[in-house]
């Protein structure tokens, strides 16, 4: 297992499948894992229309590899955190949508990685934790921004201060996950969602991934102005014209009411 690549990569049609491969360590994230993940993310952006991140074994990711972290000097810890930021930003504000399949531990840096993805699917075994307070450390993979915006700073603070773990149903209510599915089915659901997103016009997907988070950070007036520009740009592509024509000519399916849940 020591010589095994820490990240797997497979192209399934138009979907890039990116797997965390340290099940014996509950897929803890080391520097080697982060760099291998970066290579996989960049490859996916080049050759896929959407991607799925998943963890091998019974846990998605138990967070930072603390044994490695303890050996870093202060500046090394700072630079390591900034490296995580750049790589995770490549997921959140990249060119293609990322879905993530969650089971078992989604803890610390694992939760931060999940928060960088666009579509989060948790099965019934998943549990979420931020034990940094108990470990004497602080989040360093973007959680103070991404997780706090998903579930609120007070809820995040509660988890960090008390070591509280949260199940998937409650996390869905809080906004930390998009879907909760039966045990063992998160990966299939994530792939299904990725395939749906891959069918969208590339310019629309790019606008959703890159304009929405930036507009969120703007004033209302600046956000509305940016929305107008992005709307015009997305509508001006040949693919948009063809898709709108197909809709008007009733060659595409219309939206339907959701099935009863």
Automatic annotation (TrEMBL):
Belongs to the enoyl-CoA hydratase/isomerase family. CDD domains: crotonase-like (cd06558). The keyword Metal-binding does not apply. PANTHER family: ENOYL-COA HYDRATASE, MITOCHONDRIAL, ENOYL-COA HYDRATASE-RELATED. InterPro entries: ClpP/crotonase-like_dom_sf (IPR029045), Cyt_P450_CS (IPR017972), Enoyl-CoA_hydra/iso (IPR001753), Enoyl-CoA_hydra_C (IPR014748). Keywords: Lyase. This is Crotonase/enoyl-CoA hydratase family protein. It comes from the Bacteria. PROSITE patterns: CYTOCHROME_P450 (PS00086). The lineage of its organism: Bacteria, Pseudomonadati, Pseudomonadota, Alphaproteobacteria, Hyphomicrobiales. The keyword Lyase applies. It comes from Rhizobium lemnae.
């Amino acid at each position: 297992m020591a010589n095994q690549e820490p990240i797997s990569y497979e192209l399934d049609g138009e979907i890039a499948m990116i797997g965390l491969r340290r099940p014996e360590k509950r897929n803890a994230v080391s520097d080697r894992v982060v760099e291998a993940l970066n290579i996989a993310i960049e490859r996916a952006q080049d050759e896929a229309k959407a991607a799925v991140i998943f963890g091998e074994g019974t846990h998605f990711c138990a967070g930072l590899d603390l044994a490695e972290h303890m050996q870093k000097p202060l500046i090394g810890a700072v630079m390591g955190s900034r490296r995580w930021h750049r790589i995770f930003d490549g997921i959140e504000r990249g060119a293609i949508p990322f879905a993530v399949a969650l089971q078992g531990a989604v803890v610390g840096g694992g939760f931060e990685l999940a928060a960088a993805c666009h579509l989060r699917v948790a099965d019934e075994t998943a549990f979420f934790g931020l034990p940094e307070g108990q470990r004497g450390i602080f989040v360093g993979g973007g959680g103070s921004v991404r997780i706090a915006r998903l579930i609120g700073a007070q809820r995040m603070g509660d988890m960090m201060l008390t070591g509280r773990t949260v199940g998937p149903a409650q996390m869905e209510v809080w906004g930390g996950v998009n879907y909760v599915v039966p045990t063992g089915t998160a990966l299939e659901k994530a792939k299904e969602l990725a395939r749906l997103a891959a069918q969208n016009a590339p310019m629309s997907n790019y606008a959703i991934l890159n304009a929405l988070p930036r507009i969120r950070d703007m004033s209302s007036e600046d956000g509305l102005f940016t929305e107008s520009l992005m709307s015009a740009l997305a509508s001006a592509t040949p693919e948009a014209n063809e898709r709108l024509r197909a809709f008007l000519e009733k060659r595409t399916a219309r939206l339907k009411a959701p099935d009863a849940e």
